[in-house]
Design a protein that fits this description.
The protein has 150 residues and is of the alpha+beta class. It is 27% helix and 26% strand. The protein is built from 5 helices and 9 strands, in the order ββαβαββαββαβαβ. It has helices at 30-39, 51-58, 82-87, 116-125, 137-143; strands at 20-23, 26-29, 46-50, 72-74, 79-81, 95-99, 110-114, 129-135, 144-146. It has a 4-stranded mixed sheet, with helices on both faces. The longest helix has 10 residues, at 30-39. The protein starts with 19 loop residues before the first strand and ends with a strand.
């Protein structure tokens, strides 16, 4: 499967400006992450992940019988629309994961901020590996902000 290594496809729903991933008090700017990926090339940035392992970790491994009646798959954080995943998720677009580790941590701690629908589709279709872009700790800090609670 060919991999798109740039985020310049205008028809892709995932390209919407202002797309954010929220977790707890944090908000991750996915559009800003894509811009970093496009503008700041790094040879180690693009890798592959094991679909089955990642899907199980996030809760995307559920069978059709385990999906809510409205077609929503509950995952570790958030939910995935099964119909969108099956019909529109483009497996050639890499997932994005961000390094949440703190200064002094020995190992990175990654969070997927973009690609849950693609991961679900890949799992259902039996795809073994998917491309993924990794943001390092400094890049993650550039796209992370605190949510405002009004």
């Amino acid at each position: 499967m060919p991999t798109r290594d740039r985020y310049d496809m205008q028809d892709d729903q995932q390209q919407k400006k202002g797309q954010f991933y929220e977790l707890g008090p944090f908000r991750f700017d996915v559009a800003a992450a894509r811009k970093i990926i496009q503008e700041e090339s790094r040879p180690d940035r693009l890798e592959e992940i094991d679909v089955a392992d990642c899907a199980r970790t996030l809760g995307l491994h559920r069978s059709q019988e385990e999906i809510r009646q409205d077609g929503i798959v509950r995952i570790l954080v958030g939910e995935v629309d099964e119909e969108y995943a099956r019909t529109q998720a483009d497996l050639s677009v890499p997932l994005i994961i961000a390094d949440l580790s703190k200064e002094g941590d020995e190992e990175p701690s990654y969070l997927m901020i973009d690609g849950a629908h693609r991961l679900r589709r890949a799992f259902v279709e039996g795809v073994e590996m998917l491309p993924v872009y990794r943001l390092d700790r400094a890049e993650t800090l550039r796209i992370r902000s605190l949510k405002s609670y009004r």
